[in-house]
Amino acid sequence: MNGAFHGFGVALAFEARKAAASRVMLSITVLFLAGVTAIAVGMLLAAASGQEQVLAKLGPLAELDGWARLVGVVVQVTAAGGLGAFGIALSWMFGREFADGTVSALFALPVSRATIALAKLTVFGIWAAGVAVLLTAAIAVLGFAMGFGATDAAGLGEIARVPVLAALTALIAVPAAWAATIGRGLLPGIGATIVIMVVAQVLAVADFGTWLPIVAPALWAISPGSVPTEALLLVPTVPLVFGALCALSWRRLQLDR
Amino acid sequence: MSGPVARIEARALAREFRGGAGVHGIDLVVAPGEVHAIVGLNGAGKTTLMRLLLGMLRPDAGDVRVDGVDVRKAGPATWRRVGHLVDTPLAYAELDARANLLAAARLHGLGRQEATAAVAAVIAEFDLARYTDVRTSRLSLGNRQRVGLAAALAHDPQVIVLDEPTSALDPAGVILLRESLLRRVEAGAGVLVSSHHLDEVARIADRITVINDGRAIGALDPAGVDLERAFFAAVHADDRARSAA
User: Fold this and answer.
1) What is the distance between the alpha carbons of residues B155 and A32, in angstroms, rounded to a whole number?
2) What is the pTM assigned to this prediction?
3) Is residue A13 included in any domain, yes or no?
4) Residue ranges covered by each domain of chain B
5) Residues in a beta bridge with B8
């Protein structure tokens, strides 16, 4: 059978092993978690000391406190920074095959290239879920360290927004994988990530794009009440469409450049 | 064609790139139990031809059969019988040699236990025991090429396609490869190798086809005494004939 899913388990183990062995994925994970945590600590300490510029930057968040303020800062930073981290990871996973030339070794195998592309996306999804969990754990530790466990016990539920936003952000980064495939390298993927980031942030700040799947997560980060659940449920259409495009592009790939 | 099905059969194969380079109608057969070498200068079209044979490029015209199956319709059953090293080996920098070889064996359709046994055998065959736990990024170019060749051959393919396989190998590596290919040919494999010079592997060929400007312009007698002279005579005669036309 010439099925696209032949050998999916083999491809998944292969891609997982490469991702686990690479310093790139580990570096992205550490830098992202450390970066978000450091920015959150910095913003909260500066706001607590009454720095006006930081309070202005926080906008409506300045009126909140405890878990709500911490989570508000974290999800806004993650909506932009997380997109960068997830987009770079996808650009590397797909683009490195072209940059390193290893793509030629992925032809003429019983495991199809479409299957390998889907295995890459699956590994990305598992890794991104792990990053979301770690980020949530890091923010929980940070919140308790800042004393919110005692001062704002009722607000702890806010923290559930962190993994949701991280997961939604990972989903809208998937076009980077397709761009890295079409452009045959890392840079087109990173370029696509920057475009998504700019479009999402600009439109979200302009309070426009509730029903645009690449904007809804950033908008939800800024103002959760303004984005209906149905709009967030549309976000998985981005990885579905671009994941299918990835599989198709890998299936039809030629070494003609 | 009578007799057993060819390991590789290309008919009127053509793929032209902008500027006129490419492959312009090549017929080629690799029979079971045969080493077929293609020789040509840099840019003659050898790599393009191999890419067409392996489905890395789609032809403008002509067709390719691998073990009797049209490559456009080839599925896992066909591809698990193929081993190749064209351009870059399946040797990921972040993995050690053993992990790369295991991945290659599994991707070529071997089960977990079969793959472990095949990798142990090919590590011995290519004298890679010292490097099994070394990250591929730390290996010399020659040893990386040995890993790539081992990755292409670990699953005992019946159809073997190697593009300039000796380019980075030391003399010991060349001998290992030559013996490895001869063993597989004796077991019925068909081997296609390319070379831009008449190296040790081209010299074990049963057939040598000269490629020039994307065409097969003739054959050399592997038993001939002065292959270099015959090769250059063929290439220069073809160049003169084309520039006169």
Assistant:
1) 41
2) 0.94
3) yes
4) 88-156
5) B30, B66
